[in-house]
């Protein structure tokens, strides 16, 4: 059997995340978290700029940082996006505080996660796949 290069199906991207709510969101170290007088979280991430853009920006006193102010749900989300809680746990906490149904909360959590990732305000850790526990033969 000869290998036929170019006719192989492309392999799926790895790792395959069986459950998107099992991922663990975390704020990258270059994203600052500040609270306003109401306790709401504001995220700020410094953009790396150089050359003429940096010179003009400095001259104009321009702040290249990306910023986002969060509402009470976004604030709760970020408080729990500490590298220890899964998206499911975050969705559970948000669902408990919201009058919306679970599907709406889940959709919102996925959308918000994607938005923060696109802004480089959030990274996701994929937990290692844990094989199901097997009981040794003969033991109940």
Q: What's the alpha carbon Rg, rounded to whole Å?
A: 21 Å
Counting H and I runs of at least 4 residues, what is the number of helices?
A: 4
The count of strands amounts to 5
Q: Could you give a short account of the major beta sheet?
A: 3 strands, antiparallel
The rounded distance between the terminal residues' Cα atoms is 46 Å
Helix residue percentage: 25-40%
Spans with pLDDT under 50 lasting ≥5 residues?
none
- Sheet with most strands: strand arrangement: 2-3-4
Description:
By secondary structure, the protein is an alpha+beta fold. It is built from 4 helices and 5 strands, in the order E-E-E-H-E-H-H-H-E. Strand 2 and strand 3 form a beta hairpin. The radius of gyration is 21 Å and the shape is globular. The mean pLDDT is 84.
List keywords for this structure.
alpha+beta, two-stranded antiparallel sheet, 5 strands, 33% helix
Outline of the structure:
With 140 residues, the protein is α+β, with helices and mostly antiparallel strands. It has 4 helices and 5 strands. It has a 3-stranded antiparallel beta sheet, covered by helices on one side. A two-stranded antiparallel sheet has the order 1-5.
């Amino acid at each position: 059997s000869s290998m036929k290069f170019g006719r192989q199906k492309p392999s799926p991207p790895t790792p395959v995340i069986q459950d998107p709510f099992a991922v663990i969101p975390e704020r990258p170290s270059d994203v600052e978290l500040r609270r306003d007088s109401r306790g709401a979280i504001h995220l700020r991430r410094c953009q790396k700029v150089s050359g003429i853009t940096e010179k003009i920006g400095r001259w104009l006193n321009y702040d290249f940082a990306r910023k986002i102010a969060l509402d009470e749900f976004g604030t709760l989300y970020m408080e729990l996006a500490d590298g220890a809680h899964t998206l499911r746990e975050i969705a559970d906490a948000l669902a408990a505080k919201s009058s919306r149904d679970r599907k709406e909360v889940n959709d919102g959590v996925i959308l918000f996660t994607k938005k923060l990732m696109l802004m480089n305000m959030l990274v996701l850790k994929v937990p290692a796949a844990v094989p199901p526990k097997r009981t040794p033969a003969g033991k109940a």
